[in-house]
Amino acid sequence: MTAQIPAPTPPIDDKPAEAGRRDVQVLPIAADTFMLRSRSWNRLRFEIEYALEKGTTANSYLIRGNQVALIDPPGASFKDGFLVALAEEIDPHLIDYIVLGHTNPNRVETIKALSELAPQSQIVCSNPAAIALKAAEIELPIQPVKSGSDLDLGQGHHLEFIPVPTPRYPDGMCSYDSYSEVLFTDKFFGAHICSDDAYDLNRENLIEDQRYYFDCLMAPNAKQVETALEKLKDYVPRLYAVGHGPLVRYGVTELGQNYSKWAAQQKKKELSVALIYASAYGNTATIAQAIARGITKAGVGVESINAEQASTAEVKAAAETSAGFIMGSPTLGGHAPTQIQTALGVVLSAASKNKLAGVFGSFGWSGEAIDLLESKFKDGGYSFGFDPIRVKFTPDASTLQYCEEAGTDFAQKLKKSQKKTQVPRISATSVEKAIGRLVGSMCIVTAKRGNVSSAMLASWVSQATFTPPGFTVAVAKDRAIEGLMHKGADFVLNILAEGKHLGPMKHFLKPFSPGADRFEGVETRETEDGQLVLEEAIAYLECTVANRMDCGDHWVVYATVSGGEVIDNDSKTAVHHRKTGTHY
């Protein structure tokens, strides 16, 4: 017999949420199955996947058969509120199993609290998770499971376990309840967004957040993601019970297809970078994720390799086939972990000396591991794609922006190197010349969020609507400012004057090193919303991104105008004339 999933239940309170509020939403999602949805409207952590700053949810689940299973308790950030809500829903002494889709230090803290509240329960997880939990001295009995293992909870509920490891989450595991046809996906198919909508009722508004989540967490692990998706094809769920964001009920098929498409696109990249790292407390992995995001947004593939899990053969193959490689390490007791030292030896022996290298890592006091990697690659004759990145303790938003820009710089250098080896074309085609006759206003786009700011020269600008007043601007995917121009973000379009545009144009066209202040030496003032207006502009528009469309190597951003001013009535707008449509 197959249970029917009930219609979406309204939130406990249907009033608009206030920024900064935290609560736990409890609602039924299937037969005998409940969700405890811990919500935060603020950015949860300084990790690149949270950079859109739309808040997040940490979704946990209860199945109440003859036996009770708690699936994916949240991390320490939500621990206290979650435990209160859990105790109101069920006596913790009735919980028989705690099923984990992955482990990390944050989740371990909650598990330790649960071990006191539910000492009779046992943990069900993948074997890598079991090893990590034993190292963390978890007192509850641990039952590691393999692919195809199942757990009979009674009343028809039968959980089947599907390991879905990736370099970022080597202990990853999904669970499927064949009775309710719910797939508990943990890190797969989620999105970092918080709202009162528990389900994907507005799929069109969710797609950008789901894609950004994929690009941050899954794109660097495309090979492993495809393997996981192949396993999940054996199941036909009615519902993705995700770890973060709204439950996926209406877009199950579409989102599954998108994941397959997005992963395939990553694997087809002509150039790829081997990103090899180990992480003791998660900080080095966070840096790796930001660097990977910068590389992939520039159109270069990434093969992430967790040195603690990968074989020597995997490291060797990646070092030989990649166009460049980047290694990251924590410093433990003044040394690099043994796995990194082993991987370093493999890379030095397998990677040709003309490949671009990079080094990064986090440390508590001294950072000797980063020095070791840097010195070995220097001695080996390798060139560096960016200066070694050294992060003390936990990276903040500015540091992650720096790491993302470093990754983009690395990718751009690889692409330039490839172009040098290609035979140059003699002349532009007639079509390319015709495209070049399209003209646009010379503008500077400026954007700021918190203490992170950026700018770019833009000439592909065009008014798009009268009501509301709006325009489009094309933003290359490898621009640093791209991360500040997602849906809902504010920015300013500064329009330049004919005959006075060369100074700002040259300034913002020059290459900036990662983390550099793009406004150094430029006179600016702030709007009421904290955005930057150039004093040299003849007019400016205060804008909000209403939508954006994926168009090959650019995003076409549609923005609505909320304010603006003509500063110089006597000057004409500078216009950009080109001879060919193959470059700006």
TrEMBL record:
Keywords, comma-separated and alphabetical: Electron transport, Oxidoreductase, Transport
The source's superkingdom equals Bacteria
Needs which cofactor? Fe cation
| Gene Ontology molecular function terms on file | electron transfer activity; FMN binding; oxidoreductase activity, acting on the CH-NH group of donors, NAD or NADP as acceptor
Family the entry assigns:
In the C-terminal section; belongs to the flavodoxin reductase family.
Described by its record, this protein's role is as follows: Mediates electron transfer from NADH to oxygen, reducing it to water. This modular protein has 3 redox cofactors, in other organisms the same activity requires 2 or 3 proteins.
Task: List the CDD domains.
Answer: flavodiiron_proteins_MBL-fold
Transmembrane parts of this sequence: none
Q: Does the keyword Transport apply?
A: yes
Task: Give the source species.
Answer: Leptolyngbya foveolarum
Which named protein is this? Flavin oxidoreductase
Write down the InterPro entries for this protein, in alphabetical order. Flavin_Rdtase-like_dom (IPR002563), Flavodoxin/NO_synth (IPR008254), Flavodoxin_CS (IPR001226), Flavoprotein-like_sf (IPR029039), Metallo-B-lactamas (IPR001279), NADH_oxidoreductase_modular (IPR051285), ODP_dom (IPR045761), RibonucZ/Hydroxyglut_hydro (IPR036866)
Residues in Flavodoxin-like domain copies: 273-411
Q: Which residues form a coiled coil?
A: none
